[in-house]
Prior knowledge:
The structure holds two protein chains of two kinds.
Chain A: H1 2-23, H2 26-53, H3 62-75, H4 87-96, H5 99-103, H6 109-139, H7 148-174, H8 176-179, H9 183-196, H10 208-216, H11 224-230, H12 237-267
Chain B: H1 2-15, H2 35-58, H3 62-87, H4 98-119, H5 125-131, H6 134-139, H7 144-150, H8 158-174, H9 181-211, H10 216-222, H11 224-230, H12 239-248, H13 256-263, H14 279-299
Amino acid sequence: MFVGTGRFRLYAAVAAGSFRRFATYRIATVAGVFTNTVFGVILTYTYIALWDEKPGLGGYDQAQALTYVWLGQALLTTVAVMGGGFEDELMARIRTGDVAIDLYRPADLQAWWLAGDLGRAVFQLLARGAVPMAFGGLCFQLALPGDVLTWLAATVAVLLGVVVSFALRFLVALSAFWLLDGAGVAQMAWLASLFFSGMLLPLNVFPGALGEIARALPWSALIQVPADVFLGKHRGADLLATYAFQAGWAAVLLTAGRLLQAVATRRVVVQGG
Amino acid sequence: MAELLRHDQEGAARAAGRDEGRAGPPGPADGAPDRPLARARDGLRAYRMISAMWIRSTMAYRASFAMTALGNFAATALDFAAILLMFSQVDALGGYRLPEVAFLYGAAATSFGLADLAIGSMDRLGRRVRDGTLDTLLVRPAPVLAQVAADRFALRRLGRVTQGALILGYALIALDLTWTPLKVLLIPLMLVSGAGIFMAVFVVGGAFQFLAQDASEVQNAFTYGGNTLLQYPPSVFGKDLVRGATFLVPIAFVNWLPGLYVLGRPYPLGLPSWAAFTPPLVAVACCALAGLAWRAGLRSYRSTGS
């Protein structure tokens, strides 16, 4: 029990440190919010044109479709759709051999980085999510949920999305054990994530089998699922099933990460040593 | 500090014999007419050497290069995939059919790709200002702009140019237009001027980073954001947004104005049709303004620490 709370405090400290680290760069945060807002405005107009042409597309009315745009901009960095979280740093540590130091720390490698990534995500949800969402809400007709419970339910879905996103990026980072320069894999990964998360266009709008497949893949847990929870598409037992979908992918991918980590650390030869 | 270093730099260039054969005695007061030209030549030479070095360095990890170039291609193709997905549900967007949107898309993506390939590394300037490595560039005997532009030259960005050109090619085949010599001439003119306008945006963004070192993302709103905006017809957007893109940050001259002339469509702001032929002038004006902004930014630079 004592060990348990000690562990928890360690990871809580890592998460808090990561939160503070990202909070340090205030101008960068403001710049990011500005860019997200500009993209939000551009995409809003294209969605208006699309939903004008075909109302009710993907089961959304126009207000819901516009809400989806602004949710996407708000969550883009939180769930790290295009990377930019911890994985570049971990890959650099693997390349330089610094990962050896991480491995003999009295902390678990995966849990350490997960804690850091959660700290980052919470900061970015608050700092980079809130302002674009508020701007979108003021300038356009959005379908914001009226009850607190839906907001809470959506927050849980976002956090689960962050864990799935972390688990995917952890696998990407570990590829550096074999490739040394993981930039190519990282790019392939964020492409898949950009396409299949629903960031480009809601996955409900994807035609036929492509849509079915996209909605079953883990990336849908990043944007599409939290957005649908926010828009009130999943309620009651359906909401639990949605959470189970996200948690299931998180468990599978985290386990895969652990297995890959075990293989990697058995074969790792630190550069220069 | 920056001024001082720049004088040193010119001194170093003279010491290296670069100014040989120039009329008149060398000195800070001389205003020989070939000076800007010589400086431009110097800059291009430095740019070529630095970018060649980065290309060699990239080629050390060939597998990674192939993957990132392919990734760059695919990343831009995703934008078009989104448009295709939209057109899988509708026949027209803002009154424009798929080949017309593809034409605007291809023109914007090719112009932007060329600018991004040439000087897309400018957004790293803020980092250099922050960690003080810009000072290294100031003491080298080559124009700083050329060095910053060629810094980490990324050949993988050919992927974006290729993708844009392919879509443009598709559009030109799929479009059913009555071609005139003017329209044919306008297409290469549009691509080159468009690249010039986007390059000016990159340079102004770089100059801005001297002031706001961490704010490199603001630049993305105008470069990548501008590119995204231009991929759709102007009829999709609100009048104010179109006005801003025409008169404030004149990216409308990249592909909207010349492109709509080729497509035979009216421009929403009621500009005269000869405006379609102004992009080269706009590009030159933008580059001149960007040069001034760059100069002001570099002059305001104060090194970190002491």
